[in-house]
Amino acid sequence: MLAKLGQREIAITVIILTLAAAAVWYFTWYSNAQNNINQIQSNIQELTLERDRGRAAKRALPQLEETIAEYESQITEFLEVLPPKEEFASVLRDISSRARATGVTIKSITRSPGESKVEDVRAINVTLSLESPFPELFVFLKKLESMKRFSTIDGLTMSISEVNSYNPMLNTNLTMTVYVYEGSSPPVEGEEGGISQ
After folding, report:
1. Maximum Cα–Cα distance for the chain, whole Å?
2. Which of 18, 72, 75, 115 shows a CA-CA span of 20 to 30 A to 188?
3. Cα–Cα dist 129/38, whole Å
4. How far apart are CA 73 and CA 38, in angstroms?
């Protein structure tokens, strides 16, 4: 049969077979190989990124551990100065004594539960209705600041009862949050701890 074909037909047949083989090779092996190479390169990029992040995290680890230790120390110090929940009445008495010492009249005290994100710590919202001239109120607020280790002042509203007075009486609503410890064992008070300061 080959004897009947001329050189031209044989050359065309060889070219067609070569092209067919090349096409089969391209679609079966080369294309898959390119896909695999692209996938491997993508994996290399992802792994390189993760490696760089890991190295950066490793470099930052000592500083992170130091920061965590500092926060844990601050939490421990905070818990040590908190009054136990059984002593909340003492906290209210302390607030009242500070008011009397500065000449501020407490007309009413109301409390409601608050929110705390610290385990074993309960937040109690306290609203004080006060009456006093401004200088006495200012001194009372300064005295409340010494309780900042276990309380925060959240809001203050004032209204004047005597408009024409040189030193008018102020009606004041003071909202604050007091934190108490509810753990199984009371916190140990430090040398500067305690409720009355």
Report:
1. 131
2. 115
3. 72
4. 51
Residue 141 to residue 88: CA distance in whole angstroms: 19
Name the pTM for this structure: 0.52
In the predicted model, what is the mean pLDDT of residues 89-94?
Answer: 83
pLDDT of residue 86: 67
Domain range list for the chain: 1-81, 85-181
DSSP track, 145-182: HTTTTTEEEEEEEEEES-TT-SS-EEEEEEEEEEEEE-
Of 194 and 111, the structure prediction assigns the larger pLDDT to 111
For the stretch 146-162, pLDDT in tens is 775 677 888 889 888 77
Question: CATH class for domain 85-181?
Answer: alpha beta
Q: Are 126 and 136 in contact (CB under 8 A)?
A: no
pLDDT of 194 reads 40
pLDDT score for 1: 52
Question: DSSP letters of the chain?
Answer: -TTTS-HHHHHHHHHHHHHHHHHHHIIIIIHHHHHHHHHHHHHHHHHHHHHHHHHHHHHHHHHHHHHHHHHHHHHHHHHHHSPBGGGHHHHHHHHHHHHHHHT-EEEEEEEEE----STTEEEEEEEEEEEEEHHHHHHHHHHHHTTTTTEEEEEEEEEES-TT-SS-EEEEEEEEEEEEE-SSSPPPP-TT-SS--
